[in-house]
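Re: [help] complex structure
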Amino acid sequence: DTAVSQTPKYLVTQMGNDKSIKCEQNLGHDTMYWYKQDSKKFLKIMFSYNNKELIINETVPNRFSPKSPDKAHLNLHINSLELGDSAVYFCASSQVAGYEQYFGPGTRLTVT
Amino acid sequence: SQQGEEDPQALSIQEGENATMNCSYKTSINNLQWYRQNSGRGLVHLILIRSNEREKHSGRLRVTLDTSKKSSSLLITASRAADTASYFCATDEINYQLIWGAGTKLIIKP
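Output below.
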């Protein structure tokens, strides 16, 4: 059974479009995260949710918005996509914030 | 946000040799974690060491932590081809948010 899953795995779209990436975890964890990994492999946290409440919101553009319909899901919506948004986006979860995190397989977003 | 530093950036060794990579960080921490990322995959947690621990082992992995120097090292003994991956350290420096290093790319040559 996949612990943390993301869809889609690949996403190619044009500038200005709006897209969503879905994430689901079946681990019963209380905290979920979205990360962006750039071409140099730097991993930067974008958002984290604890029991459906946003607890960390890094200085990301407000074109990015996390949405959590329930504790097991944290989706990422991106409006007006820009070239600089091209990256790999990872969803992760943890039972306790600051401890072991479980990562999804990643979504490679390419904006043309 | 702060960024941990790892060295070397890349390491290439022969299968069977030991691999050591280092991580430095900037502020006080509760714990430090090491993760592995295979090409095209998500990160996988390897080991967590708490700030009051100095050394921890897990199979062929040995992690040390020196809080006075704000540094950690990951040793992989008797390396295998399957150990080829990028290795990242992460610390919970700010509000339990993990701050990540830039990673060490390890290549094991057969």
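Chain A has a mean pLDDT of 92.
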